[in-house]
């Protein structure tokens, strides 16, 4: 039988949890994967790098819980997929060769004559230490570190770990998979001469927004962990270096750490706000309440594009207005040169910046970044008898065109995109609110408010108030805030200027108090 194309298996370390901690090589390989077999401990957020048409297989392997696939099945699966000629990525939490059974998987591949490559990852031990503010080695405290497993193969007779030598043999000890056996581990260490006062830290879900750490000594840690209800996955760090956490703890000290924030924006636009909040430790849950789509008909715009030189002003009131206007302009074989006649105004800084990317500098930027602000700035210039074009959303507030018409302008509104509220995810949002898991909801436009409400689907105002009772609300500007207060809810945070960086700043400021 002749083989088609030769497949290959890449064992890739996903890093400890923070998706930013995958290696550049690992990401490169994910971007070219045809099949991805991933683990419980590999952050599923990394799957966004995988091509859409690739096959994703969840291999499970949650400690204690029934494995989704046995190790033998996983090994066989890797061989089988590679033999169909595919580029297979085996994505494993942390580093594949540190307590990850990566060695066993590669042995099987080697035995089967399958090509493979291994990409190391940031192992959870170093990540947990770093993110808990514990330098794993330090010249003043320890010159050695040992990684051990606290969950030995139960089918193995006797212990593989030489506790007598390890207990005092290495300055810092990091124990993987040790939560269930913590009492036994502590006993082994103390019985073999490690001082009961030795500091110990236990770090759960290291480097993720759910990270939780507790600190004690060999004497006290068992009770502390039990009382705190710390469950796997967690690491145990033993040694004098743990004391440095008092000074160095940085990750859990960030202003938004542990806060669950619902970001309601369009998928295209959520990233800047999310990045800003996450940079400050926020745990963002993205609900793309709106999807932006082109309008069904560009009849109005097409006609106006033919006579652009007759216009005195083109007003851009949103990023999408800019984007879809230019897409249509280009589709008609035109470019920025067609816009040399009219003056151009942008509602805000971000819109003006985007215009510049399309080769057009805004002639006017209002002092206040709203439709009203823009109207006012234009009225100052005098609009009597002027031709004004507004490329914008199909459904939008009429205040800007109406104000300008009232002042004697000839206004044409050209719809260039529409907001569509997607279905799905509804139950999830509702459930998160019901169970009090949400700390904050952010709104960056009135339509995000309206779509959020339609997703929450409250029975009435008091039901909505009940669901939002403990939730802090941030609104980007006065119009968005008014849409919120019109529903009977209260806005807690509103930045002075209506930009995403200022919104992030206002939220950080709120929680820093
Ligand atoms: N190959 C992985 C380890 C897999 S063994 C690595 O290099 O990190 C599974 C154990 O790793 C868990 O029981 C836990 O002890 C530890 N672990 C993995 N990710 C972790 C995380 N984000 N926080 C704390 N412990 C983690």
UniProtKB/TrEMBL annotation:
Any one Gene Ontology BP term: methylation
EC number: 2.1.1.107
Pfam families for this protein: HEM4 (PF02602), TP_methylase (PF00590)
Pathway annotation: Porphyrin-containing compound metabolism; siroheme biosynthesis; precorrin-2 from uroporphyrinogen III: step 1/1
Keyword Methyltransferase: yes
Residues in Tetrapyrrole methylase domain copies: 8-221
PROSITE patterns: SUMT_1 (PS00839), SUMT_2 (PS00840)
Annotated InterPro entries: 4pyrrol_Mease, 4pyrrol_Methylase_sf, 4pyrrol_syn_uPrphyn_synt_sf, 4pyrrol_synth_uPrphyn_synth, 4pyrrole_Mease_sub1, 4pyrrole_Mease_sub2, CobA/CysG_C, Siro_Cobalamin_biosynth
Domain Tetrapyrrole biosynthesis uroporphyrinogen III synthase span(s) in chain numbering: 272-504
GO molecular function terms noted in the UniProt entry: uroporphyrin-III C-methyltransferase activity
Keyword terms: Methyltransferase, Porphyrin biosynthesis, S-adenosyl-L-methionine, Transferase
Family classification: Belongs to the precorrin methyltransferase family.
NCBIfam families from the UniProt entry: cobA_cysG_Cterm, PRK06136.1
Protein name: uroporphyrinogen-III C-methyltransferase
